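Here is one chain, start to finish.
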Amino acid sequence: MQEDGHYMLNVATRPVTSIATVELGPTINTTIPPFTVRDHAGNPQHINDLLGEKGLLLGFTGNIWNPTNARRIIWAQRHAHHINRTGVNMALLSCDKPDLLYGFHISMSPPPEFPLLSDLDGQIHDLFNMAKYPGMVLLDRSRTIRHKWLVPDDRVWPKIQDILDTAESL
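Its structure:
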C-alpha cells in the first residue's frame, strides 16, 4: 500500500490500476448491528458469540471451491492460532450453502479451527459493503469496524504481521 491509501495492482490483461481502498468496502468506525448466520454445520452463529476477548477478524470470500478462496482458507488455517493469541477470534464468510462449506471443512486435514459461515443471500456482505471485494475486517468487542483489508483477486490475504499488529492495538 502506498502512503496515500492506494494499492497498485498490476494485472497482465489490464494496465496498472490504482484502487482507493479508503473509499471501498466498509467505513471504519462503523458499528455493525447484531446478526446471525449459519455455520458449515448448519448451526446458527450470532456475531456476539463469535467475538473473542478483543474482537473478531472476519474474512469475506466468494465461492469456497474457487482455487484462490481455497488458498485463503488454508492461509487462515495456518495463521489462526497466531491471531487467536492476540485475543481476536477469526471466522470466514462465504455466499455458499452450509452443506458446501461443510464439505470443504471436512476435506481439510486438520479441519479449520474457526467457523466457515454461510451468507447465502449476501445480506452480511452487503451490510459490510463487501459484496464486490474479498477482504477482511477487524471488529472490536462493540462490533465496531477498526480496520479493513481489501484484497486483489490475485492475492491471498494481507501480511500476517500487519494483521497481528493491528489486532494487538485493539
